[in-house]
Amino acid sequence: MVATWEVNSNIFQQNVQRVIGDYNVMAVVKNNAYNYGLEFAVNQFLKAGISTFSTTSLNEAIRVRQLAPDATIFLMNPSIEFEKLRAHDIHMTLPSLSFYHQYKSELHDIHVHVEYENLLHRSGFKTLDEILSVLVEHFSDVDSKMKVSGLWTHFGYADEFDGPEYEKELQDWMNIVDTLLEKGYQFEMIHAQNSASFMRESKVLNHHTHVRIGIALYGSRPYSSLSRDTIQQSLRVKANVIQIREVNENDYCGYSFAFKAKHDHTRLAVVDIGYGDGILRTRAQHEVSIKGRKYPIRALMMSHMFVEVDENVASTDEVIIYDNDLRIDDYTFKGVGANSEQLSALNLDSLKKEYV
Questions:
Q1: What are the pLDDT digits (tens) for 161-190?
Q2: Which residues pair with 113 in a beta bridge?
Q3: CA-CA to 147 of 20 to 30 Å: which in 9, 113, 205, 334?
Q4: What is the pTM of this model?
Q5: How far is residue 100's CA from residue 30's CA, in Å, rounded to a whole number?
Q6: Quick one: pLDDT band at residue 140, thresholds 50, 70, 90?
Q7: d(CA 19, CA 42)
Q8: Looking at residue 245, what is its pLDDT?
Q9: Of residues 30, 100, 116, 218, which has the active-site annotation?
Q10: Distance between CA atoms of residues 17 and 269, nearest Å
């Protein structure tokens, strides 16, 4: 018996089609496509009609090019491996004024997307004036080498509803877009909306060519007020009861006195999955499902967990950690960790990996 990471390909595809509708989508495939597997995800997205991808890794961008020879591929992180960018026709962010001045002579024939930092402050030009200074210089220089193909930002607060931050970053961004277009600058691609912004607005923003969606394509809601019916999770993580142990009142179980039995004849299922397989300790504060019933996790170890069960549970029974009932996003909203945190933690070197 081996604990298993399993994705239903049909459900994955159905969710992708439901999320994208008729919109132009740039599918985010960073970090091995949120741990779903880059080859699997790219092929699924191509099947759904998506032909534009983004990632933060140049190596991943090159792998996407091998899987999708005709796709547009955007690297969200800067790179100075300019020959690789040219050889594989990878678009890249232009992340700052200083980067432009340092490398402008080496950016010839590379498609760049000018980035505005916005409230996230992770990367990007700080002001409209900084962006204009580059565009004015670029388009007035007949020897200018790079190809300004895109304009983009990231909304860091689109999943926050308790403050004004999202409205501010949206307003600031739209002012930049409108001003640049009014001045006559044109861009083949303008993209800003992540899953949360796209779901909040229920549309593509004015003048934007693409929505840049990540987590929603992989089956998780970006914020809790979104109906569970909007997005469907195709992922199941399942393990097995390898034996049943019976302990008595005041017995300690697990490392460092993790669980103290409150009653005699307490039944504990030993399950073959643990934090070494990527189960977060915060996830272990909640329940699993066995034969359609919920049972609490009592202790988490590297390769095992204890689950308190009743007489209905026996050795070899299947234990569900995640599925469309015990969803990644539900646990996100319970404070277990971000959707992407739970997904990326799963150790696909130790778990059996299946696509069904």
A1: 999 999 999 999 999 999 999 999 999 999
A2: 93, 150
A3: 205
A4: 0.94
A5: 24
A6: confident
A7: 16
A8: 96
A9: 30
A10: 39
309-316: Cβ within 8 A, 24+ apart: 309/241, 309/244, 309/267, 309/268, 309/269, 310/267, 311/267, 313/241, 313/244, 313/267, 313/269, 314/241, 314/244, 315/241, 315/242, 315/243, 315/244, 316/1, 316/240, 316/241, 316/242
Instruction: Name the E strands within 163-257.
Output: 189-191, 211-213, 235-247, 252-253
Amino acid symbol at 169: E
Q: For residue 324, which of 20, 45, 35, 8 has the smallest C-alpha distance?
A: 8
- Between β-strands 147-152 and 111-115, what pairing exists: parallel, antiparallel or unpaired? parallel
Burial class (CB in 10 A: 0-12, 13-18, 19+), 356: exposed
Q: Are 294 and 287 in contact (CB under 8 A)?
A: yes
- Residue 352: active-site member: no
- The catalytic position among 126, 252, 255, 294 is 255
Nearest alpha carbon to residue 50 among 31, 67, 34: 67
126 classed as catalytic: no
Three-class DSSP category at 54:
strand
Question: How many Å apart are CA 169 and CA 294, to the nearest integer?
Answer: 42
Q: Between β-strands 91-94 and 111-115, what pairing exists: parallel, antiparallel or unpaired?
A: parallel
CB atoms within 10 A of CB 148: 19
